Amino acid sequence: MHTTTPLDALTARIGAVGSAVVAFSGGVDSSLVAAVAARALGERALAVTAVSSALATGELEGARAVAASVGIAHEAVDTAELAREGYRRNDRFRCYHCKSELYDRLDELAARRGYAAVLSGANADDIGDWRPGLRAAAEHGVRHPLLEAGLGKEAVRALARALAVPSAEKPASPCLASRVPYGTAVSAATLEQVDRAELALKRLGYRVLRVRHHGRLGRVQLAAEELVRAGDPGERAAVVAAVRAVGYDQVEIDEQPFRSGSLNLPITPVERNR
Predict the structure, then answer these.
(1) Which of the four pLDDT bands, split at 50, 70 and 90, describes residue 76?
(2) E strand or H helix at 211
């Protein structure tokens, strides 16, 4: 007796839509959707990456490489979330305005090119976090095959490994605006400064990190194992210098390990190097 596996179920779910545009960041979630869409839909699947000031340096190139690896056609579209006042205002509904811009563009592309559905990489664990983008998705009729199949982050990574998806172990990399606390206006200049600071730290060899933007203060968060490295005086000085070099007058290195979504929680500065 054949037992239906999670991959079988996901493939059938995606195949049933007939043709689809995949909202594709190149992260593990959307990469798994793209990989399965390539298997289930073939040439009737298209991965599309949104390009704007909020996209970190290197992410588009990474998405292109993943798309090529999993065998799905790939395109990039420009989005203009900064033209939306609700996005620039940066209250706790910022992601709603960002995703509304994205899905407006993907809906337009899908309608013009004859694709039947727009798919996202939202997974079952996203239900437990603050995700106003899901409301925008609902308004646009976007499908979430991972969420619909009840697949959380660990199951997604396991399936991505099984399919040899290159981004199976890729750390989460949400848009650069996620580094700006709610209530602080988002601008192209702010996003560029955050991007340059994080790129400088990556060039020092740090991999899982965020630079939180607090005006003149850049607040560095590192993964637990990398935080140990930054405890060395020489390393600490290099981190501080790298972030100062892009225009932050003050640099703080958080004593607590990086936690995704931490700006959704109260944050207390813990260490400051002036």
Answers:
(1) very high
(2) strand 209-214
